[in-house]
Amino acid sequence: MFSKLVSLFVRLCAALHPRRLVPAPRAWVELRCARRLDRLARRLQRMHARIAVMQDYLTGGETPAIPASDADGSLRRMLAGLRAELARMRCDLALWHVRECGGECGARLAAALARLNRIAVDTHAAAQRLEAELEARAR
């Protein structure tokens, strides 16, 4: 309902002042950004769960020395790539927050940023633990 009112407001202002672009209200923009960050956080949370399942599988008693999925080291390389992407994403988010928001934002967007950052850190740590476990098994 709220989004329909905002789009109606924007179209009405554009019709009244066709040469001047009306920026969207800041609260609406922050809400959209927060929703996108929440979707990304859910995807990272699912990735973290998959890593945890693999870690539990490896720490179980009946697993082989080197899992067949990592015989050539491809899983370790993918985990290293994931960790690099997570670090880059956190840096990009911090730069975006300072550049676009001036370091200040509403409560909803701040909560989404904090949640995504926490999940990214946890996923990075889980990927690093799994990578170390695979490396130790490869030796």
Notable traits:
139 residues; mainly alpha; 4 helices; 0% strand; elongated
| Low-pLDDT sequence parts | none
Tell me the radius of gyration: 22 Å
Q: Kindly give the count of domains.
A: 1
Classify the beta-strand content into a percent band.
under 5%
Largest sheet: none
Q: How many beta-strand segments?
A: 0
Q: H/E series, N to C?
A: HHHH
Tally of alpha and pi helices: 4
Write a structural description.
The protein is mostly helical and 139 residues long. It has one domain. Helices cover 78% and strands 0% of the residues. The protein has four helices and no strands. Helix 2 packs parallel to helix 4 and helix 3 runs antiparallel to helix 4. The radius of gyration is 22 Å and the shape is elongated.
Detail the topology: elements first, then pairings:
Layout: H1 2-16, H2 26-59, H3 74-101, H4 107-138
Q: Could you provide a short overview of the structure?
A:
With 139 residues, this protein is an all-alpha fold.
